Fold this protein.
Amino acid sequence: MATATVELKPKDYKSNIPPDWCPGCGDFGVLNALQRACSELKIAPHEIVVVSGIGCSSNLPGFFRAYGVHGLHGRPIPVATGIKLANKDLTVIATGGDGDGYGIGLSHMIHAIRRNVNITYIVMNNQIYGLTTGQVSPTSLLNMKTKSTPKGNIELPINPLMLALAAGCDYVARGFSGDIKHLTELYKGALQHRGFALVDVFSPCVTFNRYNTYDWFRQRIKKLEDKGHDPTDFVAAMEEAKKVGDEEVTIGLFYRNPNPRPPLEDLDEVIASGPPLVKRPLGITNAEARPLLEELM
Ligand SMILES: Cc1ncc(C[n+]2csc(CCOP(=O)(O)OP(=O)(O)O)c2C)c(N)n1
Ligand code: SF4
Ligand SMILES: [Mg+2]
């Protein structure tokens, strides 16, 4: 993680495009907390790349002042992986929604964890497909009525935290976009972690999810730190992650491995052997490189 030499305020991480999310959308809090975290860690905008998929949440890179890629549905992680491998000096953040990351793109998360790609993955989990106007998502609760499940959801929701823990993720956290201060701390931990870090964020869709509202969360949220949870205890993290449903919603740092695995960039012989690949000579002449590049344009 590179650091800025000048002091930057959270507002310095705002792009000149104002967010077009519905008023009250949880994604405002997700963006706000990320701006604060980068400011507090003094990571300069030109050293950050935010990569997203498709969805309301995936519009986030456009509103954040840094390099950004608004990619394909479910594919922020492969793109983020490529960027990190090409330039290990960059702070690479993958973002998107629950449909994007836990539906169509789920396998990418598991493999990136297995490889321990050094990126932070922020999932704006509103338990619905927002952009496509309110269909059931992989994290919609059982029996939830949505546009595509008028009689109630008959499928068990996916548990992203348990999946991440089981795959070997060394930093697993969940926040709530209605608690920006708390979320900022979870992001800071994730950005400082060398390896794959997952921050799942409950980020209410005020337009299409009439069930999991801010009030619904506020009545149920319990913070792990208030429960005396030890984030170095893997079994306790699994036990806490198991608790999803209607009664209690747990947020906080579930797990941080006290003996984290080295990230991919330290293990790959070529990448580990010197400066970022983008800063190394190509080993071929410009004349040889030009036709290869033209093929990609
Ligand atoms: C390959 C592909 N399949 C389906 C779609 C249609 N689509 C766009 S966004 C989306 C789901 C968005 O849900 P989520 O990722 O949870 O984001 P949200 O809008 O809720 O933030 C779908 C199914 C698409 N764009 N591309
Ligand atoms: S539809 Fe839902 S997720 Fe999309 S911008 Fe509006 S409130 Fe946010
Ligand atoms: Mg969603």
